[in-house]
Fold these 2 entries.
Entry 1:
Amino acid sequence: MTTFHVQPDGRVLVRPDQSMTIATWLDTFKISKAAQKNIVLPSSIHPNRPFSVTLKRFDSPVWHEQEARIVYEDDTCLVAYKPAGSLVHDDGSGACTLEDGVNAYLARQGFPFRAKACHRLDVETCGLVLFCKIPFLQSFYDAQFRDQTIQKEYYLITQGRPKQNQQIVELAIARDRHDARKMIARPGGKEATTIFQTLRADGGFALLKARIVHGRKHQIRLHAAQSGFPIVNDPLYNPNKKHGVLLLQCFHLGFVSAQNKQKTDIEVGLDPSLARFAQVHMQGVPHLGQDVLDLENGF
């Protein structure tokens, strides 16, 4: 397996496990044409003989007083935890984003490259977000989202519950022409499938686990609402009175890391916002295999 090790000066030492042409190596790691123009490579690759990749230009991380919480990290990527109400990317408002927090962490570590998010979560949603740390590997991670090989699972608390313990919702999704903030279920829209599993139901509410087969905007929120069990506190798809933050959390990401091309599964426990609601309205917090997150003192 190929390993990557980033040097403080911005060189990337690569140790391959087999001989291959440069073209094959570029294809294996899905390095884009634009990225290829920005790197200097050796003329050949030999097994177990490290070689250096030099970037002609790159952006460095900028220090910021607020660092993100890092759940997983290797030399090629990291997974950070996004609180509800925060942005993943800059939207021009000047608000601190998760990407800012990740790069503040990397700046403190002396890491040379600015990391970029590989996907997004709605501003109201909390949970795990994957970042690429090496610029020329961005396409390697982006392709997993584009090809829908990434595994993403969510916890959510809903008003009402599915009719069955496991319910599969298949509704195509399109933009709502009458409200730019929302999506609608409409034939001819983009294909979308969500698998809901009931973990606990009590007091008119249900704690569900959702797995998405396609990653469309607002997919879980829309599918839950259209199926008769809208997410608690959803400002767009639940017309009932709101009592706090949206109770939707991405708790599991499964992806292939470029480091050794290993399947990597990252899971965290229930977010405190969901746990508090379950404690008050659902006769306690169910045991889900991991402790409730402690966002004050780390994980």
Entry 2:
Amino acid sequence: MKAKKLSFLLMLIFVLLLSACSGGKETTGNAKDPEKEDPPVKEEEPAEEEVTYDLGGRVIKIVNHWDMTPQGGTELGDLAVQKVKDVEEKYNVKIEYHVVPWEEKVNQLTASVLANEPIGDLVGLDTNMTAAMVQQDYLYALDDIIDISNSKINDTLKKMGTFNEKVYLMKHETNESGGMYYNKTMFEQAGLTDPYELQEAGEWTWDAMLDAAKKLTTGSNYGLSGDANLLAEYSIVTNGGKVLDTTTGEVLLDSPEAMEGLEFMASLFNEHKVVKPNEGDTWNNPRQYFTEGLVGMTQGWVWEADGRSETPFEWGYVFWPKGPKGSDYQTIVSSAEGMTIPKGVESPEIVYQIWEDLQLWEANGENVIEWFEDVMPNEESVDTATQMLEKINANYWPAYDLYDAFWGTYGSISNGDESPSQAIAKVKGEAQARVDKFMGKE
């Protein structure tokens, strides 16, 4: 009994001691949580400082056949003017813009490079000029002077600037195009499906175009107008073919894709007779026929749209239709322009960085789309032109001394004088010899 009392007494003392340790305070839902330690303050990483250069007041000459001096007065113009000021301060340089006539550019650049005194640090060239200069080793490849993977030039523009598997031609945006203008009014009156609707459904094909052209060829009207040289190239490329493999230097006009394209082009002229004959001017006549409402479709580029704002009918713009071997719609580009860095330029890697810093990357493409909206008559045409920027197929075959190699060849096919196989067999050997000589394979 005494043991039980002692045990009870000890338990009571323990409870009282525990209560005393808690301060005898009642805990409720409003009681504050015990104070927690503040987490350690995370030190901010110092901002990465922009690399600056001191080129000692060096003059950076930018040369082209037109004056590239930025002009203020617009939002983009003011930004471009400010870019020049920022670059001059960052590098301690003076930016100067010089004009050299188009016809003198190659000769002046060649002579200046050979004298080790390039006419400019940055020189504007087209792809024909660039290809020739690359073969002479007169230009720097960007791959050899910078880490091309860190360049702001996107993949599409890198491909457009590539020769011999290296990037030489610099562009910060593209406005390339190449498709078909069509007379919407004529299509509606004939009860034909609008080509844009077919395009968006993936059904704008050679067969669809031919069907429309046949139905639009009535009386004095024709389904199509065009130059045989352009219609031949477009028929080859939209069927998955090429005029030239610019990497290997092989002329590919006798490939199955190319031959099928030329056969189709020949049928438009000779079998179906849906192409309005030209009257001596293969450039202006096709465009004139379309503007006058005499044909339903014609080949053309976006820059031609501005001259068609006053036509007495509604028109639209779509891709050239794809052939049976074509996997997608394509923007056919056989010539382009951009900037290059000639051999002999001091510190070419810094010159490239100066060029990059001068570009309006933050507004890339905005002015191009705004231009489309200004010159195109409807949203569908603007959409097509915008899509074309993402579907560029650049093949600079004329630059490999082939510019005039096929003059008369495609004409003889369109006139029915020769079959495609006969005409190509006649010129392929000489064309291949030209390319081999140009690429130094002889």
